[in-house]
Every structure is written in C-alpha cells, then in structure tokens.
Amino acid sequence: MERLGFLRSDLVNSLFMSINQQNIRNFCIISHIDHGKSTLADRFLEITGTIEQREMRKQFLDTMDLEREKGITIKLQPVRMKYNEYVLNLIDTPGHVDFTYEVSRSLAAVEGAILLVDASQGIQAQTLANLHLAQEQNLIIIPVINKIDLSHAQVEESVKELSQLLKIDEKDILRISAKQGTNIEQVLKAVIEKIPAPKGNIKDPLRALIFDSIYDSYKGVVAFIRVVDGQVKAWDRIKMKASGKQADIIEVGVFRPQLSKTDMIQAGEVAYIATGLKELDQCRVGDTIISINAKTESLPGYKEIRPVVFASFYPAETDNHDLLKDSLAKLRLSDAALQYEPESCEGLGRGFRCGFLGMLHLEIILERLKREYNLNLVVTSPSVSYQIIDKKENSFIISSPEDLPEPNQITETKEPWADLEIIAPNRYLGQVMKLLEGIRNEYKDTQYLSPERVLIKYQAPLNEIIIDFYDKLKNTTAGYASMSYEVADYRSADLVKLDILIAGEKTEAFSRIVHKQRLEKEARALVKRLKEVIPKQLFNVALQAVVGGKVIARETISAMRKDVTGYLYGGDYTRKKKLLEKQKKGKKKMKAIGKVNIPQEVFLKVLRK
Ligand code: GDP
Ligand code: MG
Question: Among the atoms of ligand 1, which is closest to the Cα of residue 42?
C-alpha cells in the first residue's frame, strides 16, 4: 500500500516540541460517503499551511491509488496541523458502510467530531450510523452543512433536519462550501472553542491506544496511537498489554501527514511509534501500550471485528499459490479486518477462504491483489456465515458450504439477521417498499426526518441484503435512498446445501448454502447461467442442481456437432452413415472417460456476477 512514507526533513519537528496539552484538539470528520470530508480536510491543510500550495492536490489525504481512482476514502488518515497557538490532530475517515471499523477506531482517538452533511442530499444512512458511533464515545459533535454552493442545495431544509436530529438550535449549525472554501475558518474556530483539550496526565505511567498500524520493512510494525497518559520517546522499552510482547522503540513521531520523527510524544497526542516488531499480531490494533513493569490498566479497546461475507480465492494459474499466500499476508499488514485461511478444492487446487466486511471490501482486496501483485483469481460465490447446532448440542459457526455437516447430524441451522436502516424521500417510498417485499423481512419502525424524508427500520437476513440489495435500492430510487446495516443476531432458518453436478461430477466451487424458500429459484438460475457460459463439448453435458441427491433443476448443454461429413459431397450415403456411427462411438467414449474441461473464465463469469 502506498500510504505516505516517512518525511525526510526533520526541520518541521522543532515546531512541535513540548506542546501544552491545553492547546491540543483531537477530532475526526465523519459523514455519509461523498458528503465532502476529504475536501474539507484539504481546506484545513491549506489554511494551516500544512501542505504547501504547489504540493496540494484534491483529496490530499486519499493517498492510495485506488482511493484516488475511485474517489473514495478507504483508510483512516491522521494529520497534525498548526493553527495559531493550537495543535490540531485531525483524522479523516471513510464514509462507506464496509469501512465503519475505520471510523470507530478513529473516534476512540479523539474528543470531538465534525458531522458533515451534504446540503443537496440531507441526512443519509451513514450520517446516522456514524453519529451514533460518535455519541457512544461521548464525543462533542460539530454539525456542519456542506456544499452550500450547489444550485440545488437545500440548505435550510438540511439545517432543519440536522437541528431536529441533534436537538440543537439552527443557528449552531455551520454552513460551508468545502469546495469553494466558504466559512472554513468558522469550522476551525468551532473545533477550538467547543472540543475540549485532552485530559491525560503527563506524569502518569504511559498508556496509549493503538488505533491503526502499518508495516515498514526497516522499522517494523508502526503503531498509530493516541497517547492517553504519560510520555514516550525513542529507545524506551514498552509492552503491549494484551499480547505481552515487549519492544524497544525505534522512533516516535507525528503525522504531517507523512510520518515525521519527533523527540518525544506525550499525553493528548495522536502520534506513531515504530516498534521494530516483525509481526502484526504482536502489536494489535485495540491493544494498550504501557511501560514495562508498570501495573497500568488497559484502555477499553475495540469490539472484535467479525467479517460478514466470505468467499474463496484461487489463483487462476495454480503455480501462483505461494504468491497469493504472500500477497494476502502483506495486505493484512495494512488491513486488520481482512481474514483468511488455507483451503483446497478439486478443480481449483489450493486457495484461501477469506472473510470481508462487505462486498466493497471484497472488491477492493481483489482489485489490489490484481494490481499490486499481478494476481488473476477465481472467486467463489460470496456467502455469509451460519450457525450450526449439531446432534451433540455443539454450536459452531461455518463460513463455507463444505463445512456444513450431513443433514442427519444437525439439530438446528441459523442464519445472521441484520438491523437495516433506509433513508428515502417520500416520493420513492413505494419503490423501496416493493424492493423490501422481495426479501424476507421484519418491519420495525418509521420516523420522519422532515416532511419529505423518512427513515424506515427493518430487520432482514444478512444474506438477502449483503450482495446486491444496496445497488438495487440505489437504482430504484435514482440514487436518493441510502442504507446502513449492522449484524444483530442469528435466527433459525431452513438451510440446505445446494451442489452442482456437471456431467455427473460435483463441482465444489459452485456449492452454496441456500435457504429453502430460495432453493428452486437459485438452483434454476445457477444451472441456466452455467449453461450460458460453459463451452459446448463433443458430447451432451448434463447440468444438475442437487440437494442431498435430489435433483432440483437441470439443464443440458447439447453437444457441439462437428460435421465430419462435410467434406463428403455427393451421395455416398453408406460412407456418410459409417462416419456418423463412428463419431457417435467416439462421443460415448469421451463422455465415459471424459471430464468436462471448464475454462477458468467460467468460474469468473458465474461467481463474480
Ligand atoms: P468524502 O467521501 O466525504 O471524503 O467526500 P469527498 O471530499 O471525496 O467529496 C466528494 C465529492 O463532493 C467530490 O467530487 C468533491 O469535489 C465534492 N464536494 C466536496 N465538497 C463540496 C462542496 O462544498 N461543493 C461542491 N459543489 N462539491 C463538493
Ligand atoms: Mg473521503
């Protein structure tokens, strides 16, 4: 990952020596995706002179190639700025639901958050979700309406919505244009006035929360930390409270936004520590860094993050297995949420079962493996995890169809359900309801955010909303509706394993766990799709979708008819017949011994959707 490297020049550091804690403000910008967080951060970087004008570029803090291309923020990014006598530590965050973990980790490192709302969109699902996270941390919220320059901006409506949501006066809401730089200093002033200075004690033993990390081949694991108490400098010996691992610090410093060495970091600062450690597990995100021998209590860490969608990756060229293994290990160094374990399957060879926070997360990892490591992969169909209770009363979670025990071993199968929140303009409510009717669901609540816009709450099986529900919602509402979800619990469900037989042989990569209600539809769709994409063979190929030996749907790919008689013009009928007979025999033979050769693209076409 091409996150910002170490800053070579040490000149700037003198500016930041020995900071008075009273002058520190730590804050994030949170919002729905695209409401202008990274653009507002740009204006801050300019006003504070953190980045020189000639080095400035749009969404400066989006440093990964993929972020710049897709125009979205994927990773949190801290930066330290100086404004008058104040030191401002800002963390820019992503807005997409898949990257909420980045937001929650950022929020634990700060005292306040700017809540940004696009005046042409109003409050969206992720505005609410991120606001709730900030409120859970008791952060000071600074409400800001952005994009007031847009001709279709509904500034006063948005102000009203936000003031009702936060139960505050309309005049306490700032109105800005991050793009044009309107009223930006008002935001900085509000940050300084409203957000409290950190309250740690510099004289207490060291306590620092690790909220992110990267790996540097020279300096080892570099922990991004919020120092809560005490102080720390290079060559101090530290201990990771949970892992118990000790390390001699190689370097400490701050984000400019490049990693920039300083002499010391102390209570109240957002900073980094280069630990020299070679393994990420020894210096985990969420762990507390303390001085060795100190009896310091841990800081509250983070809820353990659980992947919600799983898929297997197989290298398209089987000799790339080791490359895939190394690449995943490297990606994990900068992405604590990525999980994987080895797996193998007939036809595809050796690969990995991977867990992701959502489909965008999956897509981004896939894209990075392709670009950064030149890996062409076969991906199995994405699935959620399931809870199984077997006849011996053991309860366990499975994330691969292969791990589903035989039906006679199972007492109960459960699937994950999610709390779903959708915000939509009234005029699209009909379309949204229709879409919801297409999935299993349980209605919860309706709230009006304004006379024109409504928040509806449902519960639904994660499986039904995770793959393409969001796309459908966007399409059916011309992009006006937004949604967020959070896994709630596991509920009893009638689940079966659907297998695909191609010419009588089970092809594991196409197996999936399916709800009985969806079984027929899914089985039919799958064999139909396979029929479209598997090339014709010299013999008929039966495609069967089966559950426990019972065929649910079938298709046949008819044989490619090589016209061997073509060159025999004229009426030599007997010769022609002989040839056809011979061909028939040949076909039989092929079918008997033959396994259908399925090209890699078929897997990609079927599974990648
Ligand atoms: P983020 O996802 O919240 O970080 O949003 P970005 O900062 O990446 O901005 C998303 C899009 O909105 C970009 O195309 C920006 O140029 C645009 N944008 C941001 N702020 C403004 C604004 O004040 N006015 C207008 N017209 N566009 C803006
Ligand atoms: Mg952004």
Answer: 7
* Eight-state DSSP code of residue 32: S
203-212 tens-digit pLDDT: 999 999 999 9
CA 184 / ligand 1 centre spacing (Å): 14
Q: Comparing C-alpha atoms, which of 220, 230, 223, 251 is closest to residue 13?
A: 251
* Residue 319's CATH number: 3.30.70.870
Whether the CB-CB separation of 118 and 34 falls below 8 Å is answered with yes
What is the best residue among 29, 31, 33, 34 to mutate for testing ligand 1's pocket, by most ligand atoms within 8 Å of CB? 34
For the chain, what is the domain count? 5
Q: Which CATH number is 441's domain given?
A: 3.30.70.240
Question: Residues 175, 276: one domain?
Answer: no
Dump the DSSP string for 414-471. EEEEEEEEEEEEGGGHHHHHHHHHTS--EEEEEEESSSSEEEEEEEEEHHHHHTTHHH
User: Model's pTM, two decimal places?
Assistant: 0.85
Sheet of 309-315, strands arranged across: 339-345, 349-356, 309-315, 377-379
Q: Are residues 488 and 601 in the same domain?
A: no
Q: How many CB atoms lie within 10 A of CB 438?
A: 10
pLDDT digits (tens, 9 = 90+) for 492-520: 999 999 999 988 888 887 888 999 988 99
Q: How far is the CA of 95 from the centre of ligand 1 (A)?
A: 12
Q: Please, is 385 exposed, middle or buried when counting C-beta atoms within 10 Å of its C-beta (0-12, 13-18, 19+)?
A: buried
Answer yes or no: is 604 within a domain. Answer: yes
Same domain, 52 and 158: yes
Phi, psi of 494 (to 5 degrees): -85, 100
